[in-house]
Amino acid sequence: MKLVVGLGNPGREYEGNRHNVGVHVLERLAGWLKTGLHHQKFEGLFGQADLGKERVYLLFPQTYMNLSGQSVAAAAHFYKVAPADILVIHDELDLPFGQLQLKAGGGSGGHNGLKSCTECLGCESYGRLRFGIGRPPGPGGGKDRVSGFVLSDFNPDERAGMEPLLDRAADMAEGLIKLGMATAMNRYNRKKG
């Protein structure tokens, strides 16, 4: 069993925000798996599908980003999904826009959704699919503008290139489900050269 989580904030006003890119990847994956996030469960929108012999649970927490872990932990505990079988898809300030990376465990990097997941799961060993959004411009990486940046929409140039990135991210999530983290990281995280 795998639990795939797309982090974001609920509500129409947040739909296009950089902070919600994890949800967009999750929705793309749900479409590929011929399912949707139609059920209200675990304080989130929930769906499930089978990929080969693997049962896949899909979850978009509706708790707002800072409390995402409550929803994730509830689903993981109910279905007895081990942290190593959880994939959290999230926006990542420390990667340039459009760079995608699978990661096994690690810190939160200041991401409140990841902080909440770690706190509620009681560990950092769950998988992550990091979707690079870059940092706001300005001195010191725009640290004083991070909150406004993640809660703003992608700019027109970024939106124009979004479709292939969502496809690639969904492909990486599907690859992880089929191959496992180590093989998927080796396949997808290599630099193209």
Give a structural overview.
The structure is a single chain. This protein has 193 residues and is an alpha/beta fold. It has one domain (2-188): Rossmann fold (3-Layer(aba) Sandwich). Helices cover 36% and strands 22% of the residues. The protein is built from 7 helices and 7 strands. The chain has helices at residues 21-32, 68-79, 112-121, 146-150, 156-160, 162-179, 181-188, and strands spanning 2-6, 39-41, 44-51, 54-61, 86-92, 100-104, 127-132. It has a 7-stranded mixed β-sheet, with helices on both faces. Strand 3 (44-51) and strand 4 (54-61) form a beta hairpin. Helix 2 runs parallel beside helix 3 (112-121) and helix 6 (162-179) runs antiparallel to helix 7. It starts with a strand and ends in a 5-residue tail after the last helix. The model has no long low-confidence stretch (mean pLDDT 94).
The CATH fourth-level homologous superfamily: Peptidyl-tRNA hydrolase
Summarize the biggest pleated sheet: 7 strands, mixed
Low-confidence parts: none
Summed over residues and divided by their number, the pLDDT gives a mean of 94
The first-level CATH class is given as: Alpha Beta
Q: What coarse outline follows from CA principal-axis ratios?
A: globular
SSE sequence, one letter per element? EHEEEHEEHEHHHH
- How many helical stretches? 7
Total E-strand runs: 7
The N- and C-terminal alpha carbons lie at a distance of: 35 Å
Helix content: 25-40%
Order of strands in the sheet with most strands:
2-3-4-1-5-7-6
Q: What is the structural class?
A: alpha/beta
Question: What count of domains describes the coordinates?
Answer: 1
CATH topology: Rossmann fold
**CATH arch. level architecture:** 3-Layer(aba) Sandwich
How much of the sequence is in beta strands?
A: 15-25%
* Radius of gyration based on Cα positions: 15 Å
